[in-house]
């Protein structure tokens, strides 16, 4: 995944990350980035449906 500086800046101020479900491929890369950021920075994470599947594969 390429460097996503803008997206990471948005996540830096987050107290927690919530990744909801979704349909199709739209937004999946961003959801993976959010899950990875939460894991690497010890930010609480809640994945719902597809969001939980993403955290498992990330």
UniProtKB/TrEMBL annotation:
Domain Glutamine amidotransferase: 3-57
Family annotation (Pfam families): GATase
Family to which the UniProt record says this protein belongs: Belongs to the CTP synthase family.
Name of this chain's protein: CTP synthase (glutamine hydrolyzing)
Reactions this protein catalyses: UTP + L-glutamine + ATP + H2O = CTP + L-glutamate + ADP + phosphate + 2 H(+)
PANTHER family per record: CTP SYNTHASE
InterPro entries, alphabetized: Class_I_gatase-like (IPR029062), CTP_synthase (IPR004468), GATASE (IPR017926)
GO process terms (BP): 'de novo' CTP biosynthetic process; pyrimidine nucleobase biosynthetic process
EC number: 6.3.4.2
Annotated organism of origin: Phaseolus angularis
GO MF annotation list: ATP binding; CTP synthase activity; identical protein binding
Keywords, in A-Z order: ATP-binding, Glutamine amidotransferase, Ligase, Nucleotide-binding, Pyrimidine biosynthesis
Pathway annotation: Pyrimidine metabolism; CTP biosynthesis via de novo pathway; CTP from UDP: step 2/2
PROSITE patterns the record matches: GATASE_TYPE_1
Domain of life assignment: Eukaryota
């Amino acid at each position: 995944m390429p460097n996503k500086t803008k997206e990471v800046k948005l996540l830096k101020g987050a107290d927690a990350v919530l990744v909801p479900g979704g349909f199709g491929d739209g937004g999946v890369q961003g959801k993976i980035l959010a899950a990875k950021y939460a894991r690497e920075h010890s930010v609480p994470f809640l994945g719902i449906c597809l969001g939980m599947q993403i955290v498992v594969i990330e």
